[in-house]
Amino acid sequence: MKSVWQYWLIIAAWLVLLVPANVGVAVAEALRGQALVIGQSGYAHLPALPNPVNDARAVAGLLERLGFSVKLAENRDADALAADVDGFVEAVSGADVALVYFSGHGVEAGGENFLLPVDAEPGVLDAGKGLVSLSALLAPLRARTDIVILLIDACRTNPFPPGTTVLTGDGPAGVPVGKEGLGISRGMTILSDGGDAENLGQVIGFAAEPGRAALDGEAGGNSPYAAALIKHFSAGEQRFSDIMTMVTEEVYLKTGTRQRPWTNASLRRLLYFGGNAEEEQGDEGELRGARRDLLLTIAATPEATRSYVERLAGREDLPLDALYGMLAELDVDTSAGPAQIGRQLRQGAENLKRFLAERVTPARSDAELKRLAGLAARAEAEGAIGLARKYRAMASARADDLSIALDKREGELSADRLELASVYADHAETALLSFDYGLAADRFRAAFEQAENWDDARAFRYRLGEADALTNQGSLAGDQDVLRRAIDVYEDALRLAPRDERPRDWAEAKNNLAGAWWSLGRREEGFKSFDIALAAYREALEERPRGEVPVLWAKTHNNIGNVLAEIGLRQEGTKWLNDAVKAYRQALKVFSPDREPFYFAVTQSNIGNALLNIGMRGKGTKTLNRAVEALETALAHQSPDDEPLAWSAAQRNLANTYLAIGERKRDTGSIEQAVEAYHATLEVQTRDQMPAEWAVTQINLGNALKTMGKLTGETARFEEAANAFKAALSQWTFEKSPRDWGVAMIELGGTRLEIGKISGDRDMVMDGKAIVEEARDAFLDAGYDQYRGFFDNELKPFDEALAKL
What we know:
alpha/beta; 29 helices
């Protein structure tokens, strides 16, 4: 449930611009702005604060450059602070805008916020003696000037001991001081269109949400809130609401989600003070603009997607800036939720993690390369992935020119070549962050060509990076030729890391090579690729002992299980599937709900799927019940919000298992469980987000409903099944996916057959037969003659039913 302040935050604000002097805006003259900037660091009886004086000086300088007349006050005791405030209230008479910035200790008591002088003492505080009440400050300022802006960086944890109270004058007893943060003071209401016509509005900004504590920055620096104001408050040609949004999201990123400012704004005109605080243009301006674009994009990101990104950043210990930057590069509709982007963003997180761990930054002798590399690194740190790609591409182009020059020199130095190699590799890594695997592979290859004669270790990393990028490209696109290229590059990488000299690098390349073979085998007939993948995984495992690299050991066992399971699906009997279960259970010796919850759940789901297939080939329901247990365990450690793809796969497998149990026991209760589980799956596997998975689940649901109809004799169940099959056919076409389309057509025809048999409706049976014949003709016309006998068998029940009607 949202608190009152959150609802206030949602209320629409009037648009406001802070316009620099050099922008052509139709204004008669600059507004007269008065500012009081207060920094309180040196508290005598309370914890000293490292940042406020620095914050105040920096903010004062910013406001002066914007055109304000600024009064700077530092470390003021009660008398001095009261005099400063009274003097400012008098000074703003006749001014257009009054702005107060305060950095220091502040407390909340009885629904009022108080700013503290540096001589404040613990005990009973008197609001009338030395404390500055925000609402009492706001009222005279609103009476004397058109626009009031209060920016309060005083939301730090309550500095007083328990039991401290404030005498507010409302009664003899003191009001307890709030535990942390400030709240919404009396008088801080949003102006409405029917409000005071003479007052143009107000802005009240807190460094943290009401009731939450803000953070200090590094000693000698600025607080997160002050730093964000300094960075974005002078943004030209921006709505003021957008400026404060940038400040909010900047603090959110810099504090790792621990702090989010709160702003209440209602302004009804443009603000222009005649000054310009942003003089840098060119690259600096472009970097600043890209950062601001990202911040506004983050602000528009739905909470479900934000939560997913935050959890991913926390789990993988990665910077939020880069993850949000990658999210922007995916160019998807984030309003659909995290399901649509989860798999790619997780892969992007892996790329970023490796990039940060393995990145080499050599000393660059070429000034232009040094400049472009610095700009690209800054853009990446700011989450501006698209801009980083631009700088990396410019550096690559410069490296091309230098490479030609180096080719003409005799006795070239290895450092020169390695410098160019690192430029190409950086470009490749940035391409990975935007999921451009083809470009990444190309740039890694260029890096390898520069490094191969000079540094074997780097050459290996670049060659492996090229192969990994090709594997991702081939797997996502289903391109077997690209996967075969990846395999060739892996083999070359293995040459660069001999097993007896560099066993860990060799094992990594061998493991990744196996993954390429497995991906290729899934798109081929036969078992050759799977056999090669299995052998490669087992060789890699020899150099990945559990005692030294337990997670890698477990991941390789899980990969082995995947290959065995794929073979088992294509073989009769259960030997391979049972071996897959054994491999998965080896992985669970490392993957636990506490240490590796994601991989634990995925492995449990893999076990459940293998047991389902084993159970389908045997008798009874004992193995199927074990599959239910494994799948329910997987679902207990996943959620559709965190891992929608993995969760929905496990949920559908659970439904398949319930259906198998129901069919075997002729138990309508189990089949009803399957139907419910399929519907739960479809709530996550929506057509918009996961169209292929949605269609598969529709087929599964149709089969469950069809089975229910056979057990109960209810034609309504067959009609529901037919609707599910039609839904699948709305996604599949013969041209796009002939096998899936054919299955759906046969199942749809089968529902017509069953309804006709129950109702004695010959036309219904004829309609079903026509549907199956349409599928047969499509396959035969396309040259799939091997399916002729299959379709003949599928049509026999129709002829038998027609003979009896």
